[in-house]
Amino acid sequence: MMSNSQAPGPFFAVGVWRSGTSLLHALLNQHPQIALLYEGDLPLLGPFFRAPGGRQAWPKRWDFWNGGLRRHQLDAAAFPKNLRDENMATRAVYQLFAARKGARIWGEKSPTFYAELLRLARSFPDARFLIIWRNPAEILDSMYRAAEGGSLWFRKRGMPLRALIGCREMKRQRDELVRRGIPLLEIDYDQLTSDPESVMRGVCGFLDIPFDSRMTSLAGADRSSVPDGQHHAKVKSREIERAEKTKSALPPELAAKAGRYVNLWRKQTNGEWPRVGVRVDAQDPGAIPSWVEQAYDATTFRLLRGFDALVLLLYSVAPISLLQGYRDRKRRAAGLPARPRNQGAQ
Fold first, then answer.
1. Rounded to 5 degrees, what are φ and ψ at 190?
2. What is the pLDDT of residue 3?
3. Which of helix, strand or coil describes residue 56?
4. What's the pTM?
5. Which of 195, 254, 288, 341 could form a disulfide with 264 if both were Cys (CB 3.0 to 4.6 A apart)?
6. Please, which residues have CB within 8 angstroms of residue 89's CB and are 6 or more apart in sequence?
């Protein structure tokens, strides 16, 4: 398990989808003392362990869910045999992955953690957190472009609302972590792309490790755990592409909605959040969502989260052959080829 040289607790890098978490992961893992999994999401997969036979079958279920074993070149036979739940499995997998590199800092980056910060803090009291922020309107714009580029994940119903309201949920949970005194560092996407050295020096100071200049470049970075797809083209390039304020590709109604919520949140926080690089896309710079819109969106967000939980439960008990057939039919319906049998959904 954990060697004497490894940190006592996990390090979680978190941000809403399309906020720069993949770039952040690639740069962090350039450091020889950092080894983070890429969107394995094991801390959230409790149903895999509690299903009948789950303690034996969870590695296979996990790999089918998101390719966690394959993408990280992990051998399930190397895992301890007495892993009773997702928290024990998470520590074991993170530490084994880091030990392979000889790294001191172990953990994971995942946008799926955006609404799970408090759960992670409860499960891992010794955890440290890094949150990356990006303008919500730009997040939605990037998601829309990814969907147009062929990503089935970002074509899912309700993804824009998940991300938009998810920004506020992550802020709410961030505030609670700060109130509890849990170690937390925050960075900004625009600054990461324009001045990666200062950001990475700050991260190294937070983690109490020496700065390594390789963290400022994608040259030589290991992106083997990052799935294929046009929406990952930038992180798989050799150079960091600086964020630019290009014309939004969002439909006008979605751009206006994002602007209304940005206006609301800045009003509620006296202009403090969202902080950096905010671009208000509402047609009326003073427009905010009505209480009806807020109530409807909050309810829909909770329903979407509940639906995601039901899907996870289904994936914990249904035969994998049946689930694979469903995936293949879904991809054919979208005009895409079936994935190889050992790849995950994303």
1. -60, -40
2. 63
3. helix
4. 0.92
5. 288
6. 42, 49, 58, 79, 83
- The Cα–Cα gap between 99 and 93 comes to 10
Among 114, 122, 123, 129, smallest CA distance to 206 is for: 129
Which tokens in the block code for residue 202? 């700050």
Task: Let me know the angle formed at the C-alpha of 119 by 172 and 67, rounded to the nearest 5 degrees.
Answer: 110
Residue 7 is given by DSSP the state: -
**Residue ranges of the chain whose pLDDT lies below 50:** 276, 278, 280-282, 341-343, 345-346
The identity of residue 135, as a single letter, is: N
The whole-number pLDDT of residue 150 equals: 83
CA–CA distance, 25 with 13 (Å, rounded to integer): 8
Q: Is the CB of residue 285 less than 8 Å from the CB of residue 263? A: yes
Q: Domain 11-248 is in which class?
A: alpha beta
pLDDT score recorded for residue 276? 46
Q: What's the confidence (pLDDT) of residue 242?
A: 75
177: nearest Cα among 134, 135, 125, 132:
125
Helical residues (DSSP H) of 31-156, grouped into ranges: 46-50, 54-66, 68-72, 86-101, 117-123, 136-148, 152-155
Q: What is the pLDDT of residue 338?
A: 64
| DSSP three-state, residue 44 | helix
pLDDT value at position 244? 65
* Burial class, 283, CB count within 10 angstroms (exposed 0-12 / middle 13-18 / buried 19+): exposed
CA 23 to chain centre: 11
Residue 256, H or E segment: helix 252-268
Q: What percent of the chain has pLDDT over 90?
A: 75
* pLDDT reported for residue 144: 92
- Residue extents of the structural domains in the chain: 11-248
Residues 244-254 as b/e (b if ≥16 CB within 10 A, e otherwise) read eeeebebeeeb
Render the burial of 142-170: b for 16+ CB within 10 Å, e for the rest.
bbbbbbeeebbebeeeebbbbbbbbbbbb
**Angstrom distance (rounded) from CA 161 to CA 140:** 9
